[in-house]
Amino acid sequence: MSDSKLLRGTFILTAGTFFIKFLGMIYTFPFFALVGTQGSALYNYGYVPYTLFISIATAGVPLAVAKFVSKYNAIEEYETSRRLFHASQLLLICTGFLAFLVLYCIAPIIAPLMLPKDTHGNSVEDVVGVIRIVSTALIFVPSQSLYRGFFQGHQSMGPTTVSQLFEQVVRIVFTLVGSYLILKVFGGTITQAIGLSTFAATLGAIGGLLILFWYWKKRKTHLDELLPKSKGNIHPTNKEMFKELFSYSIPYVFVGLAIPLYQLIDQFTYNRTMESIGLKEIAESTYVMFSFTSHKLVMIPVSLATAFGLTLVPAITEAFVNKNEKKLHSQITQTYQVVFFLTLPAVVGISVLAEPMYSAFYEKSQLGGIILGFYAPVALLYSLFTVNVAILQGLDRQRYAIKGLIYGVIIKIALNVPLIYLLQTKGAILATALGYMFSIGYNFYYIKKYANFSFNRVLRRILFMIILSAIMAGAVFIVEQFLGIWFTYNDGRLVSMILVLIGAAVGAVVYLGVAYKLNLFEIILGTRLTNRLFKRVKRG
Questions:
Q1: Which residue, among 300, 261, 212, 292, has the nearest Cα to 432 in the 3D structure?
Q2: Helical spans, DSSP H, in 376-492
């Protein structure tokens, strides 16, 4: 396959992944307006355990299968790739059904742990029902991951992107339309609306699977033409194939588990702790503010930064395997620079515009804005953790990424309740930040050790970006204070949106303008990529 086609496929997958994640975040704005705080909390109670089980049931299969298929196709052992595909189908059907049964059965056990003892909002029965409804999606999702990995292993990114997009659209449309009809047309309850919304995950999974079946039927003839060309020099048993597959997949599982694990710890401890310090009345509403609404907003820059940063990781792997230390250091440096260049100004911007942003997208709430502003810097930690894990995988030192995650989760468990006692909602956010910071520092140490990498150059560039972001923050703050003479976020959603748009525009012009004048684009992206980027912008 030509480099241009490979790059095109990587771009399609990266752009598609970001767009799909972006859709998955912005739909929460109208959804929150429909179901409110109680409905959003109930939705989150069901969705976080589901996300955790999805990570376990799929076991990092798409990327692991893609790596396996790509490896054996490269040595023209196409028969081995196809054998893995067929053998894995039964395995993943079984793991999906088993995950469904386990989550369905333990729902009555874990649901009471998520709620205050004396709750006046969502009931235990409501939470059990929602968890059981969303668990049905687990039956279909693992099979999806197998097909996506198989196509990606053949350097075909279209099926993955199209099926994910279709799945997301089905889920969002069914969630929003179904909730609207139940609440506004048929006069139903919040619980019924959330039950239908979580079932949308199952319908989306079925829709995505049907798209993949269509692609398989369409391309099977072409794929079958490769089988007679197979050399047949390698004949691994099913056990050997699965052992190799799982050796690839386990690190991806732990990366996927990171955020759900932290959120699950909050679900099991936050409401009860807030109740014990006399804040039961605001426990569920503040839980939604940081775990659902604020989290969705801060994950937007995370998705963009990691999508760009992770495209550089294959080059890190290649440089490490070929023992090209100069190129390896260059690629690691560029990866960190891209992540900071994209995430840092977004984090600073969200912090400065937190109150009008929360009001514009959700509801008028000073507390919601304060929580969003405090939570925003965690986005940078999410991005760094994801990229660090990918770099360690490229260096074939993934066990340190797993250890780092485990230590971080232990810190979160140990500090969550004490910090909530001291700082309430900010305490839960701080415990998450400290857990991630330890994992990131731990990963930095082993990247430095095994890549023989010095962070001095990266730190100098990051310091420059911090100064640039501070200048941007100052400009946005001045503009917001000037506009505040006439109106504030308290004047309603439309005014808040105008404040956010003006502030974001000013911030973008200042940050990108100064970065362009100081030649920061070429320093971070390289001359060739920068020239291509600006040519495309000028054409547009």
A1: 261
A2: 378-394, 398-423, 425-450, 456-483
Q: How far is CA 450 from CA 249, 320, 379, 381, 395, in A?
A: 22, 10, 27, 22, 7
Least confident of 115-119, 173-177, 193-197, 212-216: 115-119
Q: Residues 179, 35: contact at Cβ < 8 Å?
A: yes
State the chain's mean pLDDT as an integer: 84
SS3 27: coil
Neighbouring CB atoms inside 10 A of 505's CB total 12
Determine which helix (DSSP H) or strand (DSSP E) holds 36, and give its type and residue range.
helix 28-58
Report pLDDT digits (tens) over 456-485.
888 888 888 899 999 999 999 998 888 888
Distance CA 271, CA 315 (A): 45
CA atoms of 479 and 481, how far apart (whole Å)? 5
Give me the mean pLDDT over the 125-133 stretch: 92
Nearest to 206 by CA among 280, 155, 141: 141
pLDDT of residue 534: 57
> What pLDDT score was predicted for residue 11?
58
Q: What is the band of 101 on the pLDDT scale with cuts at 50, 70, 90?
A: very high
Q: Decide: 232 and 82 in contact? Cβ < 8 Å.
A: no
- The mean pLDDT of 71-88, rounded to a whole number, is 82
Please say whether the beta carbons of 68 and 84 come within 8 A. Answer: yes
SS3 319: helix
Q: State residue 323's pLDDT score.
A: 81
Do 217 and 153 contact (CB within 8 A), yes or no? no
**Residue type (1 letter), 443:** N
What is d(CA 90, CA 242) in angstroms, rounded to the nearest whole number? 12
Is 443 a residue whose pLDDT tops 90?
Answer: yes
Residue 162's contacts (CB-CB under 8 Å, 6 or more residues apart) are 211, 215
Residue type, 462: I
Angle at 82 between CA 81 and CA 83, to 5 degrees: 90
Q: Quick one: residue 454, left, alpha or beta (phi over 0 = left, psi -120 to 50 = alpha)?
A: beta
CA distances from 289 to 170, 188, 257, 347, 521 (A): 26, 25, 22, 17, 35
Q: Are 480 and 352 in contact (CB under 8 A)?
A: yes
Collect contacts of 246-250 with beta carbons under 8 A, ≥24 apart.
Answer: 246/59, 246/64, 248/60, 248/63, 248/64, 248/67, 248/68, 249/59, 249/60, 249/61, 249/63, 249/64, 250/59, 250/60, 250/398, 250/402
- CA 55 to CA 52: how far, in whole Å? 5
Model confidence pLDDT, tens digit, residues 265-277: 999 999 889 988 9
* pLDDT score at 88: 82
CA nearest neighbour of 196 among 137, 138, 136, 133: 133
